[in-house]
Amino acid sequence: MGFGRGKVILLGEHAVVHGYPAIAVGIDRGVVAEASPGDEDLLILSPWDLDVRPDPAGEPLERAFAIALSGHSKRPPLEVRAEIGLPGGAGLGCSAAIGVAVLQAIDEALGLERSREKLAEAAYEWEKIFHGNPSGIDNTMSAVGGVALFRKGEPLQPLRSNKPLHLVVGYSGQSPSTKEMVSSVARQLESDPVRVNKAFEAIDVLVRNAKLAIEAGDHVALGQLLDLNHTILSSLMLCTTKLDEMCQTARKTGALGAKMTGGGGGGCMIALAPKRDEALRIREILGENAFVTEVGA
Is 155 domain-assigned? Predict the structure, then answer.
């Protein structure tokens, strides 16, 4: 059985694509996959009702599935069934979670083993199909989990805390293209490098302070840093009215801080709650498209 976690970025999205650090967590929702010999190579995705056959020149899922199978030349045809527990295109790393789950399921069906770190590396090739120039944070957190400081091209740095993080994840119902949002920021950087680099440098400071807050268990400070990061991301034209309203609602309901997470232009927001009871109350107010996840100490 393969499992790929979803992820949320606490702080640092977009800046991380340009070499700055980010902090992310692997959540307890994701994708489960199982592979077995079949009549042909086939990837069945539920509840999307999609049947995908590998094709190196086909649609993104067809190309990604072809890449997942390409390292195994002498094998029987494989039927892979994946159950998806995340909204697609919502900033929760759904495509990476599918990749990690599918790759692990294929390995297990063929009697192979590789470390979670190696699984993350393989899933990066899967991610490139969907996002062009991904930071690598989605596939890494999907495979490894936990809370970690990430910088592109460097080893993951796990963060330790004596207190769990109680997070509420709310989906706006809008599913933009992460690739398009990354390109939008790249265009802003090219046309106004002083402004955008100042934004990245400010995010860098927030991330470094958030690392200290997490390690100290200071969630009040962490919540304030989330709010500040949200403001900077909004200045880069990444936030929507819906996400802003959801963040404001979460703060009024008792969240220590709230922000958009992921590519922006829609997708999801996150709120940090003091305790699980408060997290459940915030989720109830945000509605059926929200859920609570706890990242252990």
Answer: no
